[in-house]
Description:
By secondary structure, this protein is of the alpha/beta class. The chain is about 35% helix and about 25% strand. Mean pLDDT is about 90; it is low at about 1-10.
Amino acid sequence: MPAFKSIVMGELWMSFMLKERKEPGELKLLRMLKARGGLLDDSRFWSLQKGYRGEVLFDKWFSSVDGEWIVVNDLLLEHAGSVFQIDSLVIGLDRVYLFEVKNFEGDFLLEKDRWYSGSKEIKDPLLQMQRCEAALRQLLRSLGYQLPIESSLIFINPEFTLFNCPPKLPIVFCSQLNRFSKKLLQQSASSGRLHARHSRLAEKLCELHMEKSRYERLPEYRYEELWKGIVCVGCGGMGVRYHYRMIECERCGSKEALDMAMLRTINECRSLFPQMKITTKIIHDWIGETVSKKVIQRVLQINFSLIGYGKSANYVKEPQRL
Ligand SMILES: [Zn+2]
């Protein structure tokens, strides 16, 4: 059961974040592949990264909004055969807010319910949000909650313009966020304090959340085809130099303790190749033979457990450290 975490404790209001947003696993893996030359088409990476950055900006904005709520971020739910994803769900006393966050940039056009970026038609984000709202309503009813849902499509990027947008649509532009936060505060102030029933709903939704499969949309990649070496923690490049107990990037100048960099690089290998048996020899190859086997063995011994004997010996994560 996730613990409550207080994010705002003003004199009057208390908000809780029950489920914090994490960087999507797919984005992390695509970043690792990109750094090692394993992505022929990186458009999915850039699109995921842009979306995630928009959601982080939204979280930052919402954490400054006064009021009493429970925030449950990034839910993947299923009800009656339909799977739906919620960027941010906020539980107030008398309603549930559903926020769909878009980090679109540039000029867009809305014409007869069709959305265009330049001359290219794109998926209707309002329709996507409405479907999500309908599925959420059914789910809430099945859990015994009749709370109304108030959905908003948030365009978080200040460089976004939507031509032809009727003012009555449930859309909030970046330039309207200040006024929108005042409206939310008024609604919270006029409703009152949350009850245990609201917390139970938030906890139930967290329980129903499904983790995405790591293989869902990953491109094919092979160990032999990826560049070997240590990726810079600062710029994601491969040009790092090794000094005594430190590594330094030739491109951006970022420095990192050698043991930290080694552990990070070992974990990259484990994430990209979960079936691979981790040995000193494999890691020595994975880091491009830039660091001695003695150092690798030390880092492996400190952070992992050795199982098996002889040629089948390999390092695994100790259960208690997971
Ligand atoms: Zn760098």
